[in-house]
Amino acid sequence: MKRMDVFESLESEVRSYCRGWPAVFDKASGSHLYDEDGNAFLDFFAGAGTLNYGHNHPQLKERLLDYLAGDNIVHSLDMYTVAKRRFLETFNDVILAPRGLDYRIQFPGPAGAAAVEAALKLARKYTGRETIVSFTNAFHGMSLGALAVTGNSMKRSGAGIPLNHTVPMPFDNYLEGQTPDFLLFDRLLDDSGSGLDLPAAVIVETVQGEGGLNAATPGWLRGLADLCRRHEILLIVDDVQMGCGRTGPFFSFEQAGIVPDIVCLSKSLSGYGLPFAVTLFKPELDVWEPGEHNGTFRGPNPAFVTATAAMEFWTGEGMEKETLSKGDQVEEALTRIAAAHPDAITCVRGRGLAQGLAFADAEAAPAVCAQAFDRRLLLETSGPEGEVVKLLPPLTTTSDELAEGLDIIAASVDAVLV
């Protein structure tokens, strides 16, 4: 068999990323992946935001290898372990307490969708209500509950059954300023004849990663938090992709100055690409019965170890400031690219190190990504029509590496549009 034949003959047709990146990858370090022929690819994908600290960061790798070499606990369900204790203590001391956040921590399973499912179930259990409000172009995961609050019609259709007990509302600027924020939502809640049952919760991404890098303004997020408070609706922030520093602060909602009732974290939480998710919620919401929501892989001790090591990046303001500075570098470069093609590129979107270019012709974005791959840069698309070229470089990517990748993007855009 040829080196790719085994994937095509044995692996399901559901595979996707590999179709745009026809290479067999073998090694990785920092901001680079290497294929089996030794070719280096600059990575502006970072495992869809799972590798905020890059590939095989030596600080995290050393802790993991030492832990495994010592015959320490790997699998533990929800038993008490030394690794879990160290993670809980460090996460509280470094992340929660300095931000004045008082949250209980639930380990719902290994993936972001598991954190979302736990959040939805808990909101319904606590309030005794069924309806969850989500937003246009939202993406929250591929399990049934998460799909029900996801906007993308292609992903929703894969459920094969009706996705009920949810109501979509317009995301920030969805109506391009034609109506005041939350006019429809507020009116429906106040009108007993609207047909909208009082929701249990609202779930929102501060920046819609898969939905096209639509970034909510701080004012819009504060307005949403106020609406939820006035109507006694729980506010869930899905920080699976935009948390762990992707937009600058550790939590993406910090800039807005809000405190959600429930927060979902995953992706870069382990810091090393190991599956790990948590659902955070205010103590008064902790109404679970023992074992009422569980899973076999909710005690990922190797991930506890690397996540604890990753918290050291956040023992000060250095990581946040560096990410914001690099985000400015990306925004300036993308703005120049957009200005050079005003008829083809509609805008620059996103925040921090989650930014992208939105194209008027949806077919242009995957073409740009293909050109970038030929130049050994990994990029993905996002948005309902795949019309956005999306950048998610590791937060540890150097300024020189960013400049190199941004130059490749400019050349790739020129190749497609000129």
How would you describe the overall organization of this protein?
This protein has 418 residues and is α/β, with parallel strands linked by helices. The chain has 14 helices and 17 strands. The protein has a 7-stranded mixed sheet with strand order 4-12-11-10-7-5-6. The longest helix has 23 residues. It is globular, with a radius of gyration of 21 Å. It starts with a helix and ends with a helix. The mean pLDDT is 95.
Query: Within the largest sheet, what's the order of strands?
Result: 4-12-11-10-7-5-6
The biggest beta sheet, please?
A: 7 strands, mixed
Mean pLDDT, as a whole number?
Answer: 95
Main CATH class of the largest domain: Alpha Beta
Nutshell version of this structure?
The chain is built from 14 helices and 17 strands. With 418 residues, it is of the alpha/beta class. The protein starts with a helix and ends with a helix.
Kindly list the characteristics that best describe this protein.
418 residues; alpha/beta; Aspartate Aminotransferase, domain 1; Aspartate Aminotransferase, domain 2; 2 domains; 14 helices; globular
Write the layout of secondary structure elements.
Blueprint: H1 5-10, H2 17-20, E1 25-29, E2 32-35, E3 40-43, H3 46-49, H4 58-69, H5 82-96, E4 104-106, H6 112-127, E5 132-135, H7 144-148, H8 153-157, E6 166-169, H9 183-190, E7 201-204, E8 207-208, E9 214-215, H10 218-230, E10 234-238, E11 262-265, E12 278-281, H11 301-310, H12 318-340, E13 345-351, E14 354-359, H13 364-374, E15 377-378, E16 380-382, E17 388-391, H14 399-417
Parallel strand pairs: 3-15, 5-6, 5-7, 7-10, 10-11
Antiparallel strand pairs: 1-2, 2-3, 4-12, 8-9, 11-12, 13-14, 14-17, 16-17
Helix pairs in contact: 4-11, 5-11, 12-14, 13-14
